[in-house]
Design brief:
The chain has a single domain, classed as Helix Hairpins (Orthogonal Bundle). The protein has helices spanning 11-32, 46-63, 68-80. Helix 1 (11-32) packs antiparallel against helix 2 (46-63). The protein has 85 residues and is mainly α. It is 62% helix and 0% strand. It contains three helices and no strands.
């Protein structure tokens, strides 16, 4: 994120940017489902917003030295043993 000028952001700032992108993703998802939104608000592209959320999630993982793939695989093994209703 150095090339975009985000290398000086603190972890809380990155987390807030992540949440902001989650909100934009939710708004874009609402649009795809024809759920009412403010006609004056900015329209967002769902695929682009999902990508932005992923970028910030990876950034957060890097801040905490988390291998996201490894964490995902470990959690999936736990989830396989759960009883889902």
């Amino acid at each position: 994120m150095v090339e975009r000028g985000f290398d000086k952001e603190t972890t809380p700032e990155i987390f807030m940017l992540f949440l902001e992108e989650c909100g934009e993703m939710a708004k874009a998802a609402r649009k795809t489902q024809n759920i009412k939104t403010d006609r004056k608000s900015k329209l967002f592209d769902l695929a682009e917003e999902v990508a932005d959320v992923f970028i910030y999630l990876l950034n957060i993982c890097n801040q905490f030295d988390i291998d996201l793939e490894q964490a995902f695989r470990k959690k999936e093994e736990i989830n396989k043993k759960r009883a889902w209703k």
